[in-house]
Design brief:
The structure is a single chain. The protein has helices at residues 27-36, 86-89, 99-103, 141-154; strands spanning 5-10, 15-21, 39-45, 52-58, 70-71, 78-85, 107-114, 122-123, 127-128, 131-139, 160-165. With 166 residues, the protein is of the alpha+beta class. The strands form 2 sheets. The chain has an 8-stranded antiparallel beta barrel. The protein has a two-stranded antiparallel ribbon with strand order 8-9. The two termini are 16 Å apart.
Length: 166
């Protein structure tokens, strides 16, 4: 199978990068994401994992993928897939404006981009949070990392994170 690529973008900031799907290491996750593209939602900057931006989506896979190609120490350029239950995200401590939307879903999918090193997927409430590494940025990471730092310092309100086929 030929390599597949997607564009990851911070839409309002007009910044994007290109990522290659890791179909050899996470075939079920890659297929689920690819079939659901394009995806776009409000972006958040991580509280716990450090150098991560992410968006939350209703479940889109016919069946949630197993924990293939897992990590708790993502590196710069990793795209990760997480599955959370309503109980895990439906609390005010996470700061989601519309907690009702997250809490009303039995499953929420978190698609994340890690843009710098020294990340550790350890949540103070729940412990280790392994993610599925399903893609890697191959172009534009430096520009995206700069925009992510701006998002961290300037705020995420009004910004969206989009995933599209390249």
């Amino acid at each position: 199978m030929a390599d597949r690529y997607l564009t990851v973008a911070l839409d309002r900031r007009g910044v994007q990068c290109t990522a290659r799907l890791l179909t050899d290491k996470a075939p079920l996750t890659c297929a689920a994401v690819w079939d659901a593209l394009p995806l776009s939602a409000d972006v958040y900057h991580a509280k716990y994992a450090r150098n991560e931006i992410y968006a939350l989506f209703p479940a889109f896979a016919v069946q949630e993928p197993p924990l293939e190609n897992p990590t708790v120490t993502p590196i710069p350029g990793d795209l990760c897939y997480f599955t959370f239950s309503d109980v895990q995200l439906g609390t005010s401590s996470y700061g989601y404006e519309d907690r009702a939307a997250v809490a009303s879903r039995s499953v929420t999918v978190d698609l994340a981009l890690f843009y710098e090193r020294n990340n550790l997927l350890l949540n103070g409430d729940t412990g280790w949070v392994p993610g599925i590494v399903w893609g890697t940025v191959v172009e534009g990471l430096a520009e995206m990392a700069e925009a992510c730092q701006d998002l961290w310092r300037g705020g995420a309100a009004g910004e969206t994170l989009s995933f599209r086929r390249a």
